[in-house]
Amino acid sequence: MSAARRPAPSSSSFSDTEIDELQSWLDAVPPPLEPLDVSALDGFLVGVLLQQPALREDAWLPLVTDVDARPLPRGLDASRLHALVRKRRAELDAAISARRWFDPWVFELDPDASPSDVVLGWVAGFATAMEHFPALTDRDEPAVVEALALLYRHLDPDDLEDADALLQAIESLEPPADADEAVEDLVQATLLLADVTRPLPRAAHRAPPRPRPRRPR
After folding, report:
1. Which of 74, 109, 134, 217 has its CA 20 to 30 A from that of 160?
2. Which of 125, 83, 88 is nearest to 103 (CA)?
3. Percent of the chain predicted with pLDDT > 90
């Protein structure tokens, strides 16, 4: 992804400059390594944060710069890249812990793009986390399946082998009306899954849902 194709958070503590900088660092990772882009990274971090017990950093951080966790070349200073990744992780962790709205990093696309096109990179990053850490997707509770369906409906059904319950849940859903609804579903699914893997104390209450964000023109 070119750094010019910027995701559009509206309430993130990240500045546009920092997001571009993070993408530039990811772009600088040399082949044959295959780093995530910033949108996939965002979904990936959410997938990591939903794991219980919590993952050690050394289990997930190498996957940011290569989907197979191959080590970075010697001499490549990734300290700034990792600092930015940790900053976004902390931001997402705070939102999930408090059941607050967060703005997923999704691409600005042309008006003809489908809702699935808009969120596909984010969902693919989330799916990458689930592939490496499958404890959540191995659970067959209805609450988990229904939440995952909100995300996985944007993937090719052929990629969901041996997931009959999930496919059935996906088929029961109405397609998102627009990109705003698709983005809202990312947050809704995240918080629903957090209720399963990171339940709040009984006395705590989820914050009211935030209105749908306006898409950039």
Report:
1. 109
2. 88
3. 76
